[in-house]
Amino acid sequence: MEEFDLSKYEKAPFLELDNYKAPKGIESYFIKMDDGIKIRICQWRANSKDSKGTILIQQGHNEFIEKYFETIQEFLDRNYSVITFDWRGQGMSGHQIKDIHKAFLKDFKRHDEDLSYILNKIIDKYFKKPLIGIGHSMGGCIMLSAFHDYPEKFYYGILSAPMLGFKNEKFLRTASSLMNIFRKDTDYLIGSKPNMGEETSFEENDLTTDKVRYKRIIDMVRIKPDIRLWGVTNSFAKAVDKRFRTIRERGWAETINLKILIINNINDKVVDSKKIDQMASRLPKAETLHFNSTKHEIFMEKDNFRKILWSSIDQFLK
Asked: Given a cut of 80, is residue 178 above it in pLDDT?
């Protein structure tokens, strides 16, 4: 394993609050992809000889690294190294269109390529094995694809409310088809209801039942409003639909022999919990942890739920 030289990379900023700081030892930098887009990476490398390995955390659509500082610290306390990055087009990574408020992507293969580059050029070279891949929501969908494409890279997998389907998929396909006639790929998807930068109140949020953790997210966005997106484009919706069709192909999931823990929130309003269970039933070595009273972001939920979550993760990683 080579020694990592941070000086070779462009330094990247990160957000902190008075009562919410980055875990000690953070290394934050940009790497440039083959098309010139800069990806922001944050990492924490364990120095102990007793390090258990490396955690790769990948967040969901419209998220950013700082939301996971608490979770990262909890993995560091368990003696893992941690690495995470903002997907292109969100957080502090580069965007592909001038309007940085829009979620735009032509094909999820571009996310696959970015992840593959970081796996091969950064994680394989500088981080201790075994590698545990953790993906939330959209990150869970992309991580599952990585488990399929690079079975030799990962030792375990954890998927939190993975984006494997929506309840309103028929509407999304219809809206996207209509837009192909009347609108551009870079236009907001009809029916997506972009918030144009307005805050969502705690009472109306679909992410967490924890007021303190939700306020923490809002406070960070207030520091840097452009770290959040306003809505999705037609192109992004088409890319999602294409990825769904791929992972639902007969035999696709059945070839993934990795041991995977799937965390599924039964009453999730962001993703379809039934489609998550359908995928879990196809994966040879998947086990599912169900929650009945949580919202979409289990790692940002109330302490009583997180206690159950961490107990299950610790048992799984044994």
From this structure: no
